[in-house]
Write a structure and sequence with these properties.
- The longest helix has 13 residues.
- The chain is built from four helices and three strands; from the N terminus they run E-H-H-H-E-H-E.
- With about 110 residues, it is of the alpha+beta class.
- The structure holds zinc ion (ZN).
């Protein structure tokens, strides 16, 4: 069954969470973290396409999830993402993963942690 997510990207901060998955847009995501020896090692976060190559919707969603990809021309991003059935978002610690996975799933992506 396809899950429909409400789009609240343009909404004010008081906008309620997504009915489908409970994700609430507006939280600040930390993409960089200072190295700390007390933290457990980070885990790899990947996006898996529904097919061999990403759909247009998946490309758009990944560009919303990963700021670096939003900066690149669409054709370049499509070529890069189509090289593999999965895309490595990066390595993140637990508290970062939770927010990124929730955001990615809300955007309609299949998120994989390894
Ligand atoms: Zn949602």
């Amino acid at each position: 069954m396809e899950v429909r997510h409400s789009t609240n990207g343009m909404a004010p901060a008081e906008e309620p969470s997504c009915d489908a998955c409970g994700y609430h847009e507006g939280g600040e995501i930390l993409y960089a973290l200072p190295n700390s020896p007390s933290l457990p090692p980070p885990k790899q976060l990947l996006v898996r396409w529904t097919g061999k190559t990403p759909t247009a919707a998946e490309v758009a969603a990944v560009r919303q999830l990963v700021p670096d990809l939003a900066q690149k021309p669409l054709a370049v991003v499509v070529r890069e993402l189509s090289n593999s059935e999965r895309f490595l978002v990066g390595a993140y610690h637990e508290f970062e993963l939770n927010e990124l996975v929730a955001r990615g799933r809300h955007l309609g992506l299949e998120m994989v942690i390894e």
